[in-house]
Amino acid sequence: MPAYILRRLIQSALILLGVSFITFVLLYILPADPVRQIAGRSATAETVASIRSQLGLDKPFIVQYGTYLWNLLGGDLGRSYLQKTEVGALLVSRLPATLLLMVAAIFCELAIGLTLGMIAALYRGRPLDNVLMLGSFVSVSAPQFVVALLLLYVFAVKLGWFPIGGYGTFAHLVLPALTLGILGSGWYSRIMRSSMLDVLRADFIRTARAKGLNRTRVILAHALPNAILPIIAMVGIDIGMFMSGIVVVESVFGWPGIGQLAWQAIQRVDIPIIMGVTLVSAFAIVLGNLLADLIAPLIDPRIRLR
Amino acid sequence: MKKLLLSTALAALMAVPAFAQSDEPKLGGNMIVTYKDDVATLDPAIGYDWQNWSMIKSVFDGLMDYEPGTTVLRPGLAESHTLSDDGLTYTFNLRQGVKFHNGRAMTADDVVYSLNRVVNPATQSPGQGFFSMIEGFDAAAAGEADGLSGVTAPDANTVVIKLSRPDATFLHIMALNFSFVVPKEVVEAEGADFGKKPVGTGAFKLTEWSLGQRLTFEKNPDYWISGVPYLDSFTVEVGQEPIVALLRAQNGEVDIPGDGIPPAKFVEVMNDPEQAALVVEGGQLHTGYVTMNVTAAPFDKVEVRRAVNMAINKDRIVQVINGRAVPATQPLPPTMPGYTKDYAGYAYDPEAAKKLLADAGYADGFETELFVMNTDPNPRIAQAIQQDLKAIGIDAAIKSLAQANVIEAGGAGTAPMIWSGGMAWIADFPDPANFYGPILGCGGAVEGGWNWAKYCNEDLDAKAAEADSIVDPAKGDERLKMWSDIYMAVMEDAPWAPVFNEQRFTMKSARLGGDDALFVDPVSIPVNYDYVFIKE
């Protein structure tokens, strides 16, 4: 087990290094010059050159990348070109909001997705099953922006149950978490349905039934724990997929997380922030996958880590 | 029908000012303004966008200032000033008893320090170039000298600024944010974080900045102008989509949606008399234009450029953006001094345009590219221009890119045509000179410069320098006439097709009071925070 974890950690570090390299290359070759943005429209060529040299952007690519990595090792993510603030401080100020939203949204996803998936499996082939599966298809393909605005309009503007955007209380959390939850639940309900169907066909279920256990007991105590296994791996992968949804949902609901920060930075080509957010997201994905792999054997002893 | 409704709404809006002006200013209260993007920095030497521009104006002051809601200069931290006979030496007498927010008295040394700081290359100020008329600029800007030799403080209440050439725009430069006075010891203590913890002499002080959430500004009780500000505080909430901000404003939770009314909601808002009554319309020092790269075929021929000017149906483009602008005839907007009132511009005449193209040897038209920034409504405007050009045989492919990429292509000279919307040009200060140098003069027509047409007419550059050397206020009209002639000559050469001048529409809550001009203040967007008040 320790050897396995060590190997996975080394792998993870290499993945992060790769992500940082690819992002750095892409931003380096981008046809937009950050120095011109800093220097402003009235700048002379000398001013531009002076700022370029102060930021070290006149150095060869490999030197710039090396410097970035070296600073990164010391925990320095650089300073935003346009906001003139430490990228680390910007990320730290926004991470709690994103984590809170992510946890709440995953909870909504699981609650909605697993329940609907289980019901669909139990009613396999009947109209209810078809309706639920159609619903799951709609939810995964619905545009995030539209769903977010729709929920906002109905529940905040028309009904007045929740505040119109913002951050701070539990009431602020409900709509953004629900938006992400509804949008992501489709995947879970589909996986849950097929997983549940497999389990229901398995021999041990037939045995349990034969022993005379009632239907509810069979489903909750025997089928569900076994059907839920593939879902764990999915949650790990889901953290990665979340990032795209979070950018949109955070923007619509005015949720001060890193998705919103990323979106603003991309629009303004603020390279240090884009790098920082990319690395944090990559880290979250790697960590999510690692945790999923480590937790799986605790639930199913048949899985062994090598 | 839509048009009729809109004009009715506008008529309702015109009726508001008399009503609004009858209110007496009241003290107290808090106002909430929202924005989509984070506030970048409140360091006056660095902040350079319209969002932070007006907040910086409330936290700091310069030697000169503007009458609220107008483009008229008035004394600021300098009570008075004199100009030497040769037009080269300004002597500013500072106001007594002005204090920074940290309690320290502001002195002439602070003014000298602040001007030296903005020019110092280590500050990386985007405003550095504005100070080129001050003696010793070249050495200071290159980092070869310890500050500007032309700026001195003979005593604690006097600042003397010597220029290397007479410059009629100098007092405007002293009212620009980049000239605002900062306390040396705080700047040095905070370093690069000064923009997050600003200390100035202004009407408000920043008391809270939650990154990504909100900024709170509180009234400075020791402000040197007695009686203002009226508000106890104002809060800027960031991270809110314009459409959500509008919903909140309609719900009474927000006083001003800072990003304005989203284009998709504009007609709906203006068609509702109740909401339209809360919208203030005003001019803005802005022109939207199409640049044509004069250094490469086919736009190296003046006939082709004039043909493009005649091909564009400006009225229709104004319709495309729901009438939020007026058609433009020339580079200067109508609200700018020096605007040529009796010039009609190139008339919309596709037939004449076709004939001009044939004269230039392009009877069958040609293919080209039109670069445009990819945010609404700019791509829609580009499509309208594309259709108009198609009608005279010009096949323009639209290149819709992020702002930074369009600016890069314009600077590199690789874009044959650019629609300027969303990027340039809103004046930095209300003087005709500000629409020339960087965007039409030879200085801007270099690699990376903002003169995207790469148009360089040395005769006009000489005339521009001559006009700006007229510093005698008595000869102001003569100077404006010279600028008018310069822009008329530019229109002869037609490196641009001016398309429209944007109008401003500020939505405000019913409880906000203050002259309407404050809500469309030409130098404070969206509003002049120091002079608005809560009516209740």
UniProtKB/TrEMBL annotation, chain A:
Cell compartment(s), UniProt: Cell membrane
ABC transmembrane type-1 domain sequence ranges: 95-296
A Pfam family matched in the record: BPD_transp_1
Signal peptide, first to last residue: none
Organism in which the protein naturally occurs: Hoeflea algicola
InterPro entries tied to this protein: BPD_transp_1_N, MetI-like, MetI-like_sf
Official protein name in the record: ABC transporter permease
Protein keywords: Cell membrane, Membrane, Transmembrane, Transmembrane helix, Transport
Membrane topology (UniProt): Multi-pass membrane protein
CDD domains for the chain: TM_PBP2
Primary location group: membrane
PANTHER family attached to this UniProt entry: DIPEPTIDE TRANSPORT SYSTEM PERMEASE PROTEIN DPPB-RELATED
Membrane-crossing segments per the record: 12-30, 99-123, 130-155, 167-188, 227-253, 273-296
The family this protein is said to belong to: Belongs to the binding-protein-dependent transport system permease family.
TrEMBL record, chain B:
Entry's localization field: Periplasm
Pfam families in alphabetical order: SBP_bac_5 (PF00496)
Keywords recorded for this protein, A-Z: Signal, Transport
Domain of life: Bacteria
Residue span, Solute-binding protein family domain: 73-444
SUPFAM superfamilies: Periplasmic binding protein-like II
InterPro entries for this protein: Peptide/Ni-bd, SBP_5, SBP_5_dom
Leader peptide range in chain numbering: 1-20
Family of the protein in this entry: Belongs to the bacterial solute-binding protein 5 family.
Name of the molecule in the record: ABC transporter substrate-binding protein
